[in-house]
Design goal:
By secondary structure, the protein is an alpha/beta fold. It has helices spanning 2-18, 47-59, 74-87, 99-108, 122-131, and strands at 25-31, 67-70, 91-93, 113-118, 146-154, 158-165. A hairpin with a 3-residue loop joins strand 5 and strand 6.
């Protein structure tokens, strides 16, 4: 009897994972490229930051991307705009440091891939929210090469993060 229950649990568990309710959603989280230090609140990217944006397109050229989000600042939008153009996607603006926009992305793109461009504090915050951990601290203000890939089955409970540099 236990064998039958075990088999039924495995079979029905597999069915529920493939039914669309429990899909893994991938978040590609990055900090904007190098910005011009002109003292303004909304600076543009330096040439190095624009080059980093071009490298991002190449880095993700074989990856499926369903949506691209950015904060409202020029430096974040300019970092992901080349990627959006290459994929014929719009850059959608989200409000940072709020859980509701991330929850909405999970609902809109189950099983999909979402790119989010933020800041040295907001990018680790999203990774911690998705993984349910406090593993990620603010990024060093001089290191723009951080890229986190977070695969989420259940937000805050069943997620795995991979930290890359580009």
């Amino acid at each position: 009897m236990r064998s039958i229950l075990l088999v039924l649990t495995i079979v029905f568990g597999s069915i529920s994972l493939t039914s669309g309710q429990n899909k893994i959603t991938t978040f590609i989280l990055l900090w904007h490229g190098e910005k011009i230090m002109d003292g303004s609140e909304d600076p543009s990217l330096q040439p190095e930051g624009l080059e980093r944006a071009t490298r991002l397109v190449k880095l993700l050229e074989k990856s499926r991307i369903d949506a691209i989000y950015s904060t409202a600042f020029k430096r974040t939008r300019d970092t992901v705009t080349p990627l959006a153009v290459s994929r014929k996607l719009d850059v959608k603006v989200y409000e940072s440091l709020k859980e509701a926009p991330i929850d909405e992305m999970l609902k809109l793109y189950p099983g999909g891939t979402v790119v989010i461009c933020g800041h040295s504090n907001t990018t680790p915050w999203i990774a911690n929210l998705l993984t349910g951990s406090k593993e990620f601290n603010e990024f060093d203000e001089t290191d723009f090469s951080n890229l986190l890939i977070v695969d989420v089955l259940v937000k805050g409970k069943s997620a795995k993060a991979t930290w890359l540099r580009y």
